[in-house]
Amino acid sequence: MIHLQNIEKVYRTSTVETLALNSISLDIAKGEFLSIMGPSGCGKSTLLNIMGLLDAPSKGQVKIDNQQTEHLKDKELAHFRNQKLGFIFQSYHLINDLQVLDNVELPLLYRATTAKERRKLASEALEKVGLANRMKHFPTQLSGGQKQRVAIARAIVGRPEIILADEPTGNLDSAMGNEIMDILTQLNQNDGTTIVMVTHDENMAHKTHRLVRLFDGSQVQ
User: Fold this and answer.
1) All domains of the chain, ordered by start, with CATH?
2) Beta bridge mates, 7
3) Is the model's pLDDT at 123 over the cut of 80?
4) Is residue 181 helix, strand or coil?
5) How far apart, in whole angstroms, are the C-alpha atoms of residue 10 and residue 208?
6) In angstroms, rounded to a whole number, what is the distance separating the alpha carbons of residues 180 and 178?
7) Contact 106, 122 (CB under 8 A)
8) N or C terminus of the chain: which is more exposed, having fewer CB within 10 Å?
9) How far apart, in whole angstroms, are the C-alpha atoms of residue 38 and residue 31?
10) Which residues contact 35 (CB under 8 A, 6 or more apart)?
């Protein structure tokens, strides 16, 4: 489902050159639940952003579901992301002025769907994460765990084949973190969704199928 070959990412300024990723090659199978660990600044989020086509590698190849992505234009990349990928962030990235249902609908605004269909899909996604009774609430009225559930509902509303999660339990206590992991595990097992998760938590990482470790931009496991 995801094929990375000899990925390198270099950030350059007028005075400094920083190697963020060094020769990363990785294959992630359809339906796999993979976790990525490593110390802060080791390149985990950079790698996730490259998998999610939010950033481009300085060198190397990125293939998603057999699609070469290096030569896709910005509009093509945006369309591909919207169809194939769902994103979950540590800080939720919800819009406080919009109700929960409207937040979840957002990715569908870029598809040829009717308002009625958007409402139906968003309602189903919220039901799947156990928030059917919070649709008319605003994000400021929710707990951290509930906000992350809304973020998961938004990520899955378009039924993506791949979910990329950057520290999805990082801002939560252990009980809430376990609830979020249970939801991700159910999505993986029941829907066959391929999930790649960046985490600092060994306990969460060991609930996934496979663990990849990074150190100073290189894969060490």
Assistant:
1) 31-57+71-219 (3.40.50.300)
2) 24
3) yes
4) helix
5) 29
6) 5
7) no
8) C
9) 23
10) 196, 197, 198, 199, 204, 205, 208, 210, 211, 212
Instruction: Indicate the length of the chain as a whole number.
Output: 221
Exposed (0-12), middle (13-18) or buried (19+): which is 113, by Cβ within 10 Å? middle
Determine the Cα–Cα distance for residues 155 and 164; give it in Å rounded to an integer.
9
Question: Does pTM surpass 0.85?
Answer: yes
Task: Write down the pLDDT at residue 41.
Answer: 86
CA gap 165, 42 in Å, rounded: 17
Could you report the per-residue pLDDT of 27-68, keeping only the tens digit for each? Answer: 999 999 999 999 888 999 999 999 999 999 999 999 999 888
pLDDT single digits (tens) 56-105: 999 999 999 988 898 888 889 988 988 899 999 888 889 999 999 999 99
